[in-house]
Design a protein that fits this description.
Layout (H helix, E strand, L loop, with lengths): L11 H27 L3 H6 L7 H11 L1
Helix pairs in contact: 1-3
Length: about 70
């Protein structure tokens, strides 16, 4: 037996909450990545193949991946 469930289109409020939740998660990922990489020494960054000037871009990439 198959049960069909009618779904309503997502409300504007639900979409807004979804976008805000995604933005918050992205901002959190950016901040965490930036903070953790900035706390590393030059030697530790070099071991990872990262120059200090690359931290911002790496944090942005991390935020995009979510």
């Amino acid at each position: 037996m198959t049960t069909l469930v009618a779904t309503r289109p997502t409300s504007s409020l639900a979409r807004l909450i979804g976008r805000l939740t995604a933005w918050r998660a992205s901002a959190r990922a950016y901040g965490t990545t930036r903070r953790e990489l900035s706390a590393l020494s030059e030697r530790e960054l070099a071991d990872l193949g990262i120059h200090r000037s690359m931290i911002e871009e790496i944090a942005r990439q991390s935020a995009r991946r979510g």
